[in-house]
Specification:
Blueprint lengths: L22 H6 L4 H7 L3 H11 L11 H6 L9 E6 L8 H8 L1 H15 L3 E6 L4 H16 L15 E6 L9 H8 L23 E5 H13 L1 H4 L10 E8 L5 E6 L2 E2 H8 L9 E5 L8 E2 H5 L2 E2 L1 H6 L8 E6 L4 H15 L5 H18 L5 H12 L9 H15 L1 H10 L9 H5 L1
Parallel strand pairs: 1-2, 1-4, 2-3, 5-11
Antiparallel strand pairs: 5-6, 7-10, 8-9, 8-11
Helix pairs in contact: 2-6, 2-9, 3-6, 5-7, 6-9, 14-15, 14-17, 15-16, 15-17, 16-17
Bound molecules: flavin mononucleotide and iron/sulfur cluster.
The site of flavin mononucleotide has 24 residues, from β4 and α17.
């Protein structure tokens, strides 16, 4: 099958061109022209255009970007623009691609967005493990300052905008927007209760917009070509294109840009090259590890847009598609997830701190051949008690995969408990790893 025309490289048109990373190369390809054009508009016109484009946040929650910007107070108080580049959701590696291949696209998107929301100061928060991307973005920032695209009176417009990089220290919870704000403030990276939402009271208690890397990069394309071009792709409520990080048991893992509502099956088999010979699809985690797992049968009818996935009881999330073939043991995989969430819980809320620990303990007791049948129900009971009760969504993010794994692959859990070994691998977890 000819797969060339399936991808729509709209955001990522120049990502394989090494020149695009340099300011000269970026400018040659039309870079910073959209900034010039946007500085001639009224900020409200930019907000309206972004609203009209239907762009929704690419960090996970899918909240409409223009609507979020509209929540800022109208008076002239100082306000901040934060770029969320923590990219901690397991399976997600699309923001890294933008940092490394298109640092100026992100910077241009941030200056335009800063102008739109009336901010004079932005920060790019980058995850601690992203040493190389941090170097690339820092170099690009220096180039943008030298060229007069950042700093005082940008291109003679009277608009001032400063941008700094803040390097995180490798905590998943610092990707949650209020955790990130705490971290930037020099505190422990712990989430804060909402409301007040950051748009009203965020960084240093001032109005703050937090947007994902991909969201801010897309602002350049939207302002360059207009909302109507962007809306050509996707559905009425899921507009535009999106980068999907494809990983797991797949022949060609990587980032792929496709229009929203792209069939998941086509991403796996046409773009991703399918599974290894002889392997059968068992399941797919469609939107990062917090998204409930889909069975192979559900994959058949799944389109990658917000509504379709929500309708299937899962979510588009960050666009991290993790493919699971029939060589994988679902109990084993769930053990990886429960360990991760237990490790990453910040510990402020009892249901999350204790719940993630219990989930991990119970799954590992099954994995060690010590599980009881009632443990499967106990997993569901604990997970159900963790939902919708806490300061941030990490608790739900830990509970949802458990509920979906146990309900959709119950036979594997029951077999493990009864036989003391994996239905798929034939041995217990303990025998594999020691
Ligand atoms: C536990 C947790 C981790 C998160 N990690 C990230 C992250 O790494 N990157 C990100 O952009 N958003 C992350 N989010 C979502 C942010 O809180 C926020 O919704 C997002 O940055 C807003 O940007 P957007 O509207 O452009 O998507 C996380 C949320 C939670 C609950
Ligand atoms: S839900 Fe978990 S991670 Fe979020 S604030 Fe509470 S304890 Fe921390």
């Amino acid at each position: 099958m000819d797969t060339k025309n399936l991808e729509v490289k709209y955001l990522s048109e120049h990502y394989s061109n090494p020149e695009y990373k340099t300011i000269e190369g970026y400018k040659k390809l039309g870079g910073y022209e959209t900034l010039k054009k946007s500085l001639g508009l009224q900020p409200q016109q930019i907000i309206d255009e972004v609203k009209a484009s239907g762009l929704r946040g690419r960090g996970g929650a899918g909240f409409p970007t223009g609507v979020k910007w509209g929540f800022l107070p109208k008076n002239g108080e100082p306000r901040y623009l934060l770029c969320n580049g923590d990219e901690g959701e397991p399976g997600t590696f699309k923001d890294r691609l933008i940092f490394e291949e298109a640092p100026h696209q992100l910077i241009e998107g941030m200056i335009i967005s800063g102008f739109a929301v009336g901010s004079n100061k932005g920060y790019i928060y980058i995850r601690g493990e992203y040493k190389k991307p941090t170097g690339v973005i820092e170099k690009a920032l220096r180039e943008a300052y030298d060229a007069g695209f950042l700093g005082k009176n940008i291109l003679g417009s009277g608009f001032n905008f400063d941008l700094d990089v803040y390097w995180g220290a490798g905590a998943y919870i610092c990707g949650e927007e209020t955790g990130m704000i705490s971290s930037l403030e020099g505190e422990k990276g712990q989430p804060k209760l909402k409301p007040p939402f950051p748009a009203i009271q965020g960084y240093l208690k001032k109005p703050t917009i937090v947007n994902n890397v991909e969201t801010l990069a897309a602002v350049v394309n939207i302002m360059r070509d207009g909302a109507s071009t962007y809306k050509k792709w996707g559905t009425e409520k899921s507009c535009g294109t999106k980068l999907f990080s494809l990983s797991g048991n797949i022949v060609k893992p990587g980032n792929y840009e496709v229009p929203l509502a792209f069939p998941l099956k086509s991403l796996i088999y046409d773009l991703g090259g399918g599974l290894k010979p002889g392997r059968k699809l068992k399941a797919v985690i469609p939107g990062g590890s917090s998204a409930p797992v889909l069975t192979a049968e559900e994959v058949e009818r799944c389109n990658l847009d917000y509504e379709c996935l929500a309708g299937m009881g899962s979510m588009l999330g960050s666009g991290a598609v993790i493919v699971i073939d029939d060589s994988q043991c679902m109990v084993d995989l769930l053990g990886v997830l429960t360990h991760f969430y237990h490790h990453e819980s910040c510990g402020q809320c009892t249901p999350c701190r204790e719940g993630t620990g219990w989930l991990d303990k119970i799954v590992h007791s099954i994995l060690n051949g010590k599980g009881r049948l009632q443990d499967i129900e106990l997993l569901e009971k604990v997970a159900n008690n963790m939902k919708g009760k806490t300061i941030c969504a990490l608790s739900d993010a830990a509970a949802l995969p458990v509920l979906s794994f146990v309900s959709k692959f119950r036979d594997e859990f029951e077999f493990y408990v009864r036989e003391g070994r994996s239905k798929v691998r034939g041995v217990a977890h303990a025998q594999m790893h020691h």
